[in-house]
Each structure stands twice: as C-alpha cells, then as structure tokens.
Amino acid sequence: MDRMRLMETFVRVVETGNFSAVAREAHTTQSAVSKQVQALEKLVGAPLLVRSSRSHSLTEAGQLYYERCRQVLDTLEEAQLEVHRAEHEISGVLRVAAPVAFGRLHIVPRLASFYARHPKIKVHLQLDDGFVDLVAAGIDVAFRVGELKDSRLVARRIGSAHRATLASPAYLERHGEPQHLDELPRHNCIIYTGLTAINEWSYRDSAGLSHVVRVDGNFQSNSSEAIRQAVCEGLGISYSPIWVFGDDLRAGRVKPILTRYRAPSLPLNVVFQPARRPSLKVNSFVNYFSEAFSRDPDIAQMLTADA
Amino acid sequence: MDRMRLMETFVRVVETGNFSAVAREAHTTQSAVSKQVQALEKLVGAPLLVRSSRSHSLTEAGQLYYERCRQVLDTLEEAQLEVHRAEHEISGVLRVAAPVAFGRLHIVPRLASFYARHPKIKVHLQLDDGFVDLVAAGIDVAFRVGELKDSRLVARRIGSAHRATLASPAYLERHGEPQHLDELPRHNCIIYTGLTAINEWSYRDSAGLSHVVRVDGNFQSNSSEAIRQAVCEGLGISYSPIWVFGDDLRAGRVKPILTRYRAPSLPLNVVFQPARRPSLKVNSFVNYFSEAFSRDPDIAQMLTADA
DNA sequence: CCAGATTATTCCTGTGTGGAATAGATGCTA
DNA sequence: TAGCATCTATTCCACACAGGAATAATCTGG
C-alpha cells in the first residue's frame, strides 16, 4: 500500500469531494479510490471523512491530516524538482586547470570522492605551472597560487600555500644545516622561475620583523616537479609551498630548515568566469574542494595573519 | 511500493551508512533494503548514493533528497500525533445549554454536520429559557442572550440576537397595523418574562434617536415557545429575537411591523468554564458553532453598531 | 416517489514485494 | 601481499495484496 498515493488520492478526494471524479481523474476505478481512502484511515487510525453516499465532509482529524498531506506532497514535489535540476545541470565535462604539484597532490587524490558525490561530472584536469588564460584555453575553473591579476574573473580564496625552506638530509649532511638567514647566500639555492625568477626569499622572524635574502644556485626551473626531484636528490635548498613536497616531508626525504623564520604564505584561489546564471557544475566543484581544503591542515588558512 | 517506507529506509541508510544494519533494525533482510533503495532511486530518477560494497556516500542529489525526506517524515509524524490527540481528546459527552427556541432553531439543525466533523463527541443538549448555573448543573458550554453577569466564566461573542416587533396577519387584520410607536400602548403586547419582565420596548429611529415605549397586554410568559405559539395564534404583538419565530417569518405566519424603527440587538455569547488546559472538546464545539453562525445572516453580527 | 448517481463490498486475477541463497567486491589484518 | 570477513547485487520463487468488474445499498434532487 503506497502511502504516498494514498495521500494523493485523499487530498484529491478532499478537494473534489467526490470519489468517482478522483477515480476518473486518476484513470482508475471508484473501487480503488474507496479502498485507498479506507486504507489511509486505517493507517492513520482515525476516520478522516464522513461519507454520505452523495457527499462527504471532513472530520476534525481529517482536516488536520489534509493540511499535513498537502505540506508533505508539496515538499516532495519540490524535492523532485531539486533533484531533477541537480541531475540535469550538474553533469558534463568540467575543465580544470591547476599547478602541477598541487593537482597531483591535492586534486587527484580527492577526485574519487568527488565523483562519488557528482557521478555525472567528467573532469578534464590540465596541470600547468605557467600562467593559463582561462578564456583562451576554454577552462572552467583554475586554481591559482599568489596574488591575482585578471580582474574579469571571479575569485574565491580557498586556502593558503604555506611555504617553507627545505633540503634533503643528504644535502644538509654534506653542507651543514644553516641556522641563520645570512648563511643562505653561501648555499646552493634552487630557484623557481614561474612567471618571474624568485631569487629573493622573504621571511618574518619571531619578533615580526621582515627579512629578505638574495639567493643563488646552479639550478632553476619553472617546473615544481623538477625542483622537487632536485631537492630530493640533494641538489640544494628550496623555498616553496610545502605541498610541493607532499609525502616527501612525511617520509623524511626532505626536512624543513630555518624554522625560526616564517615564510609568508601565498593566497590560494580558485577562479572562474562569471556567468549570468551561476553554473551549478562549477559551483559544485568549487564548493566541494573549498570544503575539502578547509579541513586539510596543509591548505586551510591559518588563523594567524598571512602575508 | 510504499514510498513512505522507501523514504524511511533511505533515511536510515544515510544515517547508519549500512544496508545490513538497517535491515536488522527493521526486522527484514538486506535484500529488501537494497531493493528499496534501488526502487527509490528509480522513482526519483537519479542515483542517490554511490555504493562501494563496504561503504557509501551521498550524491549531490542524494543529499538534497535526504533533507527533504527528513522533512517529510517529520511532518508526517507530527500529523500522526495531531490526529491521535484530536481523536483522543475530542470525544465523549459535551453538555450544552441554550435557550429553547435558539436551541431548536439554530443548534439542532446543525448537529448533523457537527457530528460529521466530530464523530466521537456526544452532545447532551439542555434547553432552558431561564438562567442556568453552569457549575451547578455540570454544563460545559452555554449559549447566553443579553449582557453577561457571571465573571468567572469565559465568554465569546458569536453573534447578535436581532430583535423585531411581530404579529400575525390575523391579529393585524382585526386590530389594524400600528404605524407609529405611540400606537403600541393601545395594542395587546405579549411580554417575555425571562429574568425580569420586559415591559419597556426600546427602539432607535432612522435619525438615530432612542425611544422607549411602556407596553402591556393580557399574556406574559417566561417561555419563548409559548410566546411564539401565542403570536402565531393572533393573541398579540411580540418584541423578541427574530429567531424565536424562525420559519414562521419565512412562511408568513408572522409579520414584522414598525420596521421603520430598529430594535437594538442583544449580544449572543457562548460561555464556558476556564480550564488550566483548554479543553479541545469545548473548543471544537465553540469553534464550530462560532464559524457556522458567522455565516448565518440571522445571527451574524451586523456591521452597523449594535445597542 | 422515482431516477440517477455515488459508495461499500465481494470475488477474482495478476503483479510485485520480500525472503533465501549465491555471486561478486572490498577493506582489514596478519 | 594474501586471505578472511563482511557487505551489496542478483536471481528465483512463493505468497500476499492491490486493483478491476459487478452488485448491493444508500442518498439527492426534481
């Protein structure tokens, strides 16, 4: 006995005041309607309407129950619409761009559960450490590290790229571990050349004073993966977002140094093109990762001030 | 396929994250639970949760639908409680007191539909034109015409007793129809002696001026039924609530006279004893009749001012 | 007072739900 | 890494039950 249908027929009976009419309307027989109303009364445990073979009237209980039924049916219809909309609009290909290490370490591992939540979305993930023009490349969503330039895009800050100074134990063994910033220029510093070469490393000491150190070394790259590889193999010291090294840190293949000095964090944003009607697909993706990252200590914004 | 049960199991599945546990909890088999969730997904038209034989997670659609389900189930449970309460508390004997004519003409004819709405209430109707002490007589609800005295009772105004001056065509034939108030003392006026003998009839003319006429006649009674009978048989002129004459007016057995003068209406109240917890039974009765009378032109309060 | 319409009831048929068992899959543990 | 334990999907079958048709009973309105 489908209580939903029971309630629907009951509501219609109340509104038309006529079993037979409801039967015709629902392409069924008057017999069925009669039985359904009876079944509902049995289920509810009280007479809902008083029948007199030509018309009925609601009992008090019936009146109360009728109102609730309407409420329930309306809610259910609304639910159906919501689900349908979600099902229809949150589907298809979503083109996502991100820095290489970030994508590998923080996006890909979360895709499985993202797909679980959004089975109809297909992700095309494009990893690039350089600058990517969303419009030109047909990208829907991009993760950006650092300050933003392109003002035509909508940006949402979803975390921070916490940075640290790192080296492999082997390197430190050979060259000694620097204890003060002024030792850095004597070390082999690996320089990331994303948009511009970063050969000045900035710090803030425990007293809150800023320090900038000009560094140099025999290896530069625009690829965070290459830098990671280089550091792990003991080529030198790196100054970069800690998530570039991911497991390497946990596994002890690299070690943070100069921890007395805090390297200012870079903002981590997700950007997308503004649309007249906000795209549920893009929203779903942004919301999902925003939520996920807020629970990830490596990425979540610290309560202390970022640079 | 009972959608209600489907939704219940779905909700439990979401909350426990485990088909088998829900099956045990509902004293059924895991097979049934699996099928029910599938059936719901088919009904809704979208996957609600992504299964991986050891755990699930909600899809976006599932999340939305889950919330709605909770809402629906809560509403339904509330409905069940309401109905149960109504069913339980709106039952038993209700003792009602009213003036004789009023009861006969305005209460009894509405009892059938009142019973339809409240099948479990039994009405003991006690008709009396005199004053009845609610507490002493064990009355739950009383209809009172005129100003109220007993301040220990809760009163609710539910209408007005519109009054008129009436006589039978036969009487008017014999004695002529009075056109002015000052002719009344020469007529045989029948006097109602409810609590006190009303031998002064008051009026308001079209200019709003009050007039009081002292009248007399050869018949007085404390019974409106007796007065009605007397008027119908042409004994004299009466000044009383028009509902005392009910059908007689419509049938032409009595006729309103001196219609240029308005007789001030008396308030019609329903009174009952205040209770710590308001009695649903009394409330149901009062609400029903209050509502019914508000749609009855004989009783409804006029928009023009009453005396 | 009759005619038309409406609801309750009965009997029967066909669908479909749920149970038991099996297969397939996955995560945990040693 | 392999095996075990647990979970879900699926298949097959039997029984229950919902709904249709027809009839009886009841009521309304002209």
Automatic annotation (TrEMBL), chains A, B:
Gene source species: Aromatoleum toluolicum
Family of the protein in this entry: Belongs to the LysR transcriptional regulatory family.
Source domain of life: Bacteria
Protein's UniProt name: LysR family transcriptional regulator
UniProt cross-references to PROSITE patterns, sorted A to Z: HTH_LYSR
Limits of the HTH lysR-type domain: 1-59
Coiled-coil residues: 69-96
Keywords tagged on the record: Coiled coil, DNA-binding, Transcription, Transcription regulation
One Pfam family in the UniProt entry: HTH_1
